Amino acid sequence: MAEQRQPATVLSATDLTPHVRQLVIKPKAAKIAFQPGQWVSLHLPVGPKPPLNRAYSMADPSSPYGELTLVFDLVPDGLGSPYLYQLKSGDELTLSGPYGRFILPQALDRELILIGRYTGLVPMRCLLKQMFFKKIHTPVLLIAVAPSEEEVLFHQEWLTMAVQQPSFRYLPIVAEQSESQAVEKTLAMLGPLLTGQPKVIPMLCGTKAFVRPIRAYFMDQGYDRKEIKAETYD
Asked: Distance between CA atoms of 122 and 73, rounded to whole angstroms?
C-alpha cells in the first residue's frame, strides 16, 4: 500500500531545554488517529537525496482538534533536527503515519517499568498522560536518564505526576559521560528493584547503545524477549 503523505502546518515552536524543542503541528488533509507510543514520519527537504525521512513520536495523546506534539533534540552535525529547529509558526511540513508498536500491552496485570534515555522519554510521556486520563491505576515506575541536569526532560511534569498519582514513581538519573555510563547507572538502580520481586512489564526507549544492554539484562533475569517492549531511534 502506498504511503499516504499530507501537509501539516506548524502551530508553535517552544524550547523545552537548551537543546530540545517542541513543535505543535496540525495535519491539513486529515486527522491522524494514533495510539500513544506511536510516531509519524516527517519528510524533510534536506540532505543529498531529499526528502530526508525522520521519525518522531507523539508527546501528547490524540487531540479532538487533530494537532500533534513532537519533541526532538538538536543533533550536532545532523541534517533533520537543524532544519526543524528553524521552523516557526505558519511554516509547513510533509508527514505520514502513524507507525510503530511501542504501545501499552492489553493486559496491564503487573507493574509497568518505563526506562527512557533523553528523547526516548517522549513516547513515555504520551503513554503516561493517556493512562492517567483513563484512570488506569497499574503501578508505574519511570526511570528517566538525561545527559545533564539541564536536559532532564519533563522533570516538573514527572514530579507533579508523582504527587498526584499514588501509583506512579519517578527516578531521574543524570549520566553526563557516555551511553555506557547511562547503562551502568540504570542497571545499578534496577538490580535492587528487580531482585527477588515478581516480574514486571518493561518498556525501553533510547539509542541502541542504551536499550540493547538493558534489554539483555532483563533477559538474563529470565524475561522472554517478547515480554520486553523496546524502541530505538538511531
From this structure: 11
Distance CA 43, CA 94 (A): 5
From residue 19, give the alpha-carbon distance in Å to each of 122, 197, 203. 14, 38, 25
- Burial code (b: 16+ CB inside 10 Å, e: under 16) for 198-216 equals eebbbbbbbbeebbebbbe
pLDDT digits (tens, 9 = 90+) for 7-65: 999 999 999 999 999 999 999 999 999 999 999 999 999 999 999 999 999 999 999 99
Q: Which helix (H) or strand (E) holds 156?
A: helix 155-164
Enter the C-alpha cell of residue 204.
525501553
Read off the C-alpha cell for 87: 521552523
DSSP designation for 230: E
Give the predicted TM-score (pTM) of the model: 0.95
- Cell numbers at 44, concatenated: 524533510
Paired with 232 in beta bridges are 206
